[in-house]
Amino acid sequence: MIGKTEKLAILFADISGSTSLYEEKGNARAREMVSHCLAVMVAEVTAEQGTVVKTIGDELMCTFPEAVNACRAACAMQVAVESKRPRDDGPMYIRIGFHYGEVIPEGSDVHGDAVNVAARITEVSRARQIIATQEVIDALPEDMRAKAHRIRSVAIKGKQEQLDIFQVGWQDDDGEATRVISPTFGKQPKGREQLVLSHEGQGYQVDENQRTAMLGRGDTCSIRVRDDFASRQHARVDLRFGKFLIADQSINGTYIRFSDGQVVHIVREETLLRGSGAISLGRPFSEDAVRVIGFEIPG
Predict the structure, then answer these.
(1) Domain span including residue 63
(2) Does residue 175 surpass a pLDDT of 70?
(3) Residue 142 lies in a domain
């Protein structure tokens, strides 16, 4: 017999790149950093009347009485994680997905299709993203709906039709990306944005005309890197809503070194490119990575 159902917002928040964090910082320090990050997130959940259902490793599952509470908590979590990290630690990023629908409470846990949907859309989210479903967007007030835009459709196990998913803007400087919402994909903003990639005599420009560049050792890549550490289609650079993002899709990960010396390591995640720097496919810069790709955003 199926128990009584209740309509709730179900939210999953996952710390991105925690596996590499343990490799770089060691088990003890990495665990401290993960625990601190989880505590920061839990505080924001509680502040918005949320309930923490469970913590699984570096992932948090929680529920909220309304979609608006979940949305506010999600934005607050992103801001808090980036602003409240210990000063001596490198950056930590989280990815969040949430859905609003019927669940079956069972003790301190919840079950049902809505939980599966929330978990699935979190899987396709990227670092520093908040992803929500149409059901969430429909339940938000107008001012919050204006901070979301539809990005794609995803297949959900057990459902015949794909679900539309939306990215919720949480930064004050997100520009058009936080102010557009439409049943169809929004038009990209007009501009003269360009990013120049260079490697061993090869050059490629990502701009309004060529919005994507593939990096790797495959013959069809925009920039080809002859290195066994690089996958055939290792990473992708995209121009989206006036910003350049690099998305890793490899086994060994992608390393980005910015002109200020900051190094970011992503594995099956994406991050924002800014200014100028270098990209190493699969090799840490500490291992004398010489086959690097230079990038520059002319300003």
Answers:
(1) 6-178
(2) no
(3) yes
Could you report the per-residue pLDDT of 195-233, keeping only the tens digit for each? 999 998 888 999 888 889 999 999 889 999 998 889 999
Q: What is the model's pTM?
A: 0.58
Burial class of residue 33 in the structure, from the number of CB atoms within 10 Å of its CB (0-12 exposed, 13-18 middle, 19+ buried): buried
Residues 147 and 200 grouped into a single domain: no
Q: Give the CA distances from residue 204 to residues 90, 214, 219, in Å, rounded to whole numbers and listed in that order.
A: 30, 10, 15
In this structure, the dihedral spanned by the alpha carbons of residues 199, 204, 207 and 213, taken in order and rounded to 10 degrees, is: -80
Per-residue model confidence as pLDDT tens digits over 58-94 = 889 999 999 999 999 999 999 999 887 766 666 788 9
**Containing H/E element for 256?**
strand 254-258
Number of folded domains that form the chain = 2
* Residue 260 pLDDT class (50, 70, 90 cuts): confident
Could you tell me if residue 204 is inside a domain?
A: yes
Tokens 């297949």 sit on residue: 155
Q: Is 217 found in the same domain as 174?
A: no
